[in-house]
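[INFO] parsing input record for Putative membrane protein
[DEBUG] input buffer:
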Amino acid sequence: MGALTVWRFDSPKGADKAAEVLSVLAAGHLLGVHDAVTVSWVDGRPKPSTGRIAGRTGQDGSVTSLWGLLLGVIFFVPLVGAAVGAVSGTLSASLQDVGICDRFVHQVRDEVTPGTSALFVLAPAGVIDTIRDAFAADHPQLILALLSDEQDAAIRAVFAD
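[DEBUG] output buffer:
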């Protein structure tokens, strides 16, 4: 089973610091991570900035599309307005097809706000405790979406298109 985890930090730089820790663990083969991205939202900015973690092995088109779709639905579509309501519904349905429910999207949207940051990690569910232990000093909030084996496989199939 796979997991899409979101680790929320109380500062705009918290996710970048955690990304460095994650990269060290992955480089040392202490845990497997499919892919990860950061979101940093500086106070006073209208929207967050995003970044990929360099050197991730999961940088195929399907995962890139997943991040674009997921981060777009969470952070950017709500800012555009009602004109794209139908598109938003279609995108949300695509996310639900791979096990990412509206409740998860709304929770992330409510929790990752100006002055905070988040690290989004796509990894096997078995590494969540290792990641939690590595980030313990920074006391992140964990927002979690567990995916079945079928949903995990469907992510690449749905977003490869």
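[INFO] Confidence is low (pLDDT under 50) at residues 55-63, 79-88.
[INFO] shutting down worker
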